Amino acid sequence: MSEPVILSSRVRLARNLRSYPFPCRMNETQRAEVVETVRKAVATLPYELMFVNMEDISELDTIAMVERHLISPEFASSGKGRALAVTDDESISIMINEEDHLRIQVIKPGLSLYEAYEIADTIDTALQRELDFAFDKQLGYLTECPTNLGTGMRASVMMHLCAMGESHAVSRIASNLAKLGFVIRGTYGEGSEASSALYQLSNQVTLGISEKAALENLMNISGQLVQSELATRSRLMESMEYQDKISRSMGILLTARLISHAEAVRLLSNVRLGITEGLIEDISLDTIDKLMLSIQPASLMRAQGEKLSPSERDKARAKLIRDTLR
Description:
The chain is 47% helix and 16% strand. It is of the alpha+beta class. The strands form two sheets. An eight-stranded antiparallel beta sheet has the order 2-3-4-5-1-8-10-9, covered by helices on one side. A two-stranded antiparallel ribbon has the order 6-7. The model has no long low-confidence stretch (mean pLDDT 94).
């Protein structure tokens, strides 16, 4: 179930095989060997994962995976020598030969960092029985990027900070969060913007701290941001102009015949706030959250089963929104 502020929690573990160079220095033969070695290890896991070579995936499906946060934009840039292991519900995925040999990822709804970590740790432990991970007693797990040394863990929460974004509070607190060892970024991580007021809050420190301590710190900071967001929402909702803005957003979404992705996510963000504040009834947060995913360009065309021009996408997007909200 979706929550008013925190949509999902993610835990990602970076691991590398001791006997191979980092992916950026591997040749085609080594890439293929790593893929096959990991494929055999994944088959022993207590979870059922589908194994696919990224070279066999269409460009449209690959972009749709990025939109669903299943893979990173960097991983999608080239399918050569790369593979993905993923569960049917896409809550568990393992990218092979991205920046590191393995990127183990678990996504859970709401504020579920501990649950996501428990699953990721179970997978990590099982894979270590089959694979020889590069590990140093002082530096911890060895990774291509030095910022991931140590635990190799990046944990994050996806937050809907519509009120704090409206008041420009997010940009003001970003530097303070950095001093505490956290970073707040846009929807798709580093270098991206916060579409529909969705932000990723994640830990930056992976060396000299345990996984559980990092998770506890992230939980505490997340709780503080949630309280700040809710307080800011209460102040905003005292304004009749802002209530009107939400109602108008709903009206446009129910009647528009053409709508761009940028406009749609902005309006859906307003409607999501209206639902949490009781201004809009009979529509669930889950409905809005699923719409935000399904109206993205590649995901929309994938559902339609064909490539669409920008105007055709705007028409299909508007119809999907009307049909869903009604």
